[in-house]
Write a structure and sequence with these properties.
5-stranded parallel sheet; binds calcium ion; Arc Repressor Mutant, subunit A; 3-stranded antiparallel sheet; alpha/beta; Rossmann fold
Amino acid sequence: MRQPGQGRGMTRLLVIEDEPRLASFVVRGLSAAGYGVDVADDGRAGLTIALTGIYALVILDLNLPSLSGEAVLAELLAARPEQQVLILSARADMSDRIHFLELGAADYVTKPFHLAELKARVAARVREAGASLERHSNDGIRVDVHARSVDTGGGPVHLTDREYRLLHHLKERTGKACSREELLADVWGMWFDPGSNLVEVTIRRVRHKLGPEIIETVRGVGYRIPA
Ligand code: CA
C-alpha cells in the first residue's frame, strides 16, 4: 500500500469543510499542487472517510454539522494516533491554537488564509509524514516511521504526531540537552513562549508510553535522551 508522502502515485488529502465555496477553493488549490483531494461536508461523514482511507493529511474545519471538528479530531486520533491533522479555523485566539495542538493536531491555520500559506504548510506536513528516524538506531530505540511507532524492547508503541516529532528531535541529538524553547520552535513551530505546558505534557505522555527513563530532565537546561 502506498505510504503518505512518498513513492509513486498521488499523495492523498482529505478536506472536511462544510462551507462549499471554501471547500472548493481549497480542493482546487491543492489539486493544482498535485495532491489527490477528497472532500466531506460534515463531521460524521468526514470521520468515516478518514478512518476508511489512507490520507497523508486531514484538513479539518472546526464548526461542522453532525459532529464538531473537535470531536472528529479526538475520535480520529484515538483510532489513528499517527494521523496528521491540520485544523482550519476562524478562531484566531492563541488559547484555541494551543488547545488543538495539545489535542494532537499537527498544525493550525486561521481563516482567512492565503492559499500559498496553506500549500506550504500542507507540503511541510506531508514531508514529515515520510520523515525518517531509521538512521539513528544506535540507542536501542527502534522506530517504524510509517506507523509512527517506537519499540524500546517491549513491543511497538504508537505515538501521536507531536510525540513522535519531539522524540525525533531529541533522538537526533542523543546525549545533548534540548531547551524547552528549542522544542517549542522545532516541534510546534512556536518561536515564542505561549505560556503553556505543551512541552511538559508531551514529555510526560512519551514517558508514560515508553518508560520514564526514555527522556531525562536536565535541571535548568531541558531534556535529553541519555547517550
Ligand atoms: Ca464550518
